[in-house]
Description:
Blueprint (H helix, E strand, L loop, with lengths): L6 H15 L1 H9 L5 H13 L12 H12 L1 H21 L2 H13 L4 E4 L15 E5 L2 E12 L6 E8 L2 E8 L5 E3 L13 E11 L4 E3 L4 H34 L1 E2 L2 E2 L4 H30 L4 H27 L1 H4 L4 H14 L4 H15 L1
Parallel strand pairs: 1-4
Antiparallel strand pairs: 2-3, 3-7, 4-5, 5-8, 6-7, 9-10
Helix pairs in contact: 1-4, 2-3, 4-5, 4-7, 5-6, 5-7, 7-8, 7-9, 7-11, 8-9, 9-11, 9-12
The chain binds flavin-adenine dinucleotide (FAD).
Flavin-adenine dinucleotide binds next to β1, β3 and α12.
Amino acid sequence: MNFDLTDRQKEMKKALEGLLADDGAKADLADLRGQRVRPALLGLTGRLAGAGYPGLSAGDPALTVAQETVASLCPSLFLGLEYSARVFGRLVEELGSAAQKQAILPALTAGRAIGALAMAEQNTSLEKNASQTTATPAAGGLLLRGRKGPTINAPLADWLAVVATGPDGPLCCLVPADAPGLNLGPRLATVGLDGLAVAELELDGCLVPGEMTIPLGAAGPATIRAFEDQVLAVAALGVAWRAYHAARLRAKEHKSGGKPIIAYQEIGFKLAEMLTYVQSSQLLAYRAAWLREAGDREAAVTALSAKVYIAESAEKVASEAMQIMGGAGFIRGNAAEESYRDAKFLGLAGTSNEIGRMKIADTLLDWY
Ligand SMILES: Cc1cc2nc3c(=O)[nH]c(=O)nc-3n(C[C@H](O)[C@H](O)[C@H](O)COP(=O)(O)OP(=O)(O)OC[C@H]3O[C@@H](n4cnc5c(N)ncnc54)[C@H](O)[C@@H]3O)c2cc1C
């Protein structure tokens, strides 16, 4: 078994690191935290488009390597970009009509437009209950009514994919951001992922033409959730790498009692354990990608195992990184504290750790 990256994957990794290290990209990354989030996200997407990144398909083995590279540099950028190009974009690519793909995907992958997925609702697990957002027939299409919870990219998006209950079951409506009856709430303040733009939304009689709807079937919401989970698992891997690297550097540079703190066994052991978590997370993420590409029957359960394991590992690694940083880590503005705040999101978003475990157990019950 060969665990090495292919030449193509190595080249892509290097190209992405180079693209994000130039001055323009650094300025855009800084703007992600400020008011210029939309131009910054579009600018960064455009830069990464040069290396083919946003257009990578879900079945491409280079995808996880490329995602890991971007996620470990900036988890907020990664999630903003991926919810646009890969969650919203993948939904259109895999489930949409030819006309929908043509109308939406080229601008999305070139960094000229941003997409968002509005699926989750308060008090509704869409895996078990129908969406309370309804799409009812009206002259000229379907009328959307309902409320959606926090939605990544909603304040920036050109297009939103709104999951609703239609006359024939679950469907997804592709809604332009300026559609009458689509009302966005204010940008929400989040605990972590400072560069992510998130808002709730209300659909108040928003008319969607029939050709901009995608019938989902009963399994549709779970399929879309799996798109999210793939992205969230790699985001967690990126967060873990970032926290680990910050702690390792600090432990080599910072001295106590006349020697770098890495020389103390307690700190060295912590770093050893952190690296073990990150490396095993990486292997699981790659294996999930490999099984998905191979169409293996264990692909879905391995993807869930990866989501749960990597999200929980990221929390552990980020917490130990803070411990190694000491007081300096508790002052805002360093990778360890950012990772500590970022990591919390990844185990509760998409399929939560609890629900993930239950689904894995259900699969085991079915199989053995
Ligand atoms: C910042 C942010 C951005 C988001 N962006 C998006 C987005 O872009 N698009 C989108 O569609 N959604 C988005 N969400 C929603 C997110 O995916 C949901 O918050 C997540 O799916 C969890 O659902 P919930 O908040 O309703 O929690 P709940 O489902 O109410 O869960 C609450 C707790 O109860 C546990 N629980 C729930 N049901 C069970 C059960 N059956 N058995 C055991 N434990 C259970 C959960 O594990 C969790 O610990 C976002 C959320 C946040 C906070």
